[in-house]
Amino acid sequence: MTRERFRELVAEALDELPEPFLSCLQNVQIVVDDEPEPALLRDMGLDPRRDVLFGLYQGVPADERGDTDNLLLPDRISVFYRPLVRAFRTPEAIRREVRKTVIHEIAHFFGMSDEEIDAEGY
Predict the structure, then answer these.
(1) Are strands 75-80 and 28-33 parallel, antiparallel or unpaired?
(2) Which pLDDT score is estimated for 70?
(3) What is the pLDDT of residue 63?
(4) CA angle 93, 37, 71 (to 5 degrees)
(5) Of 9, 53, 79, 113, which sits 20 to 30 A from 89 (CA to CA)?
(6) What domain range is 49 assigned to?
(7) What is the DSSP code string of 56-95?
(8) For residue range 4-35, what is the model confidence (pLDDT) as tens digits?
(9) What pTM was computed for the model?
(10) CATH number of the domain bearing residue 115
(11) Quick one: which of 73, 76, 38 has its CA closest to 56?
């Protein structure tokens, strides 16, 4: 799958978000990166040779923000192209996992834990 088509899948996943969530995604940068740096994985307690990361939310979750947090730099959601394309072979499987990854990372923006997100199926 080309990187351009992958970017389109990320955009489609965002377009599918229900309006109450979409309008709340302010000051959030959503990007496609090749893959996470090994140092980042190690900082997260992951083994770069064994563990895989499809996406990452970096920022201050919405439920932890205060009145002056509008001065913060934009939060960042990264969707990692190479790990997803390596792990899922068909265009439909990649599309499904890109959508799942985007929703998972946006849920972190709204303050949900991995356990809560997993319970919702993402």
Answers:
(1) parallel
(2) 61
(3) 78
(4) 95
(5) 113
(6) 3-119
(7) EEES--GGG--TTGGGSPPEEEEEEHHHHHHH--SHHHHH
(8) 999 999 999 999 988 878 878 888 999 999 99
(9) 0.89
(10) 3.30.2010.20
(11) 76
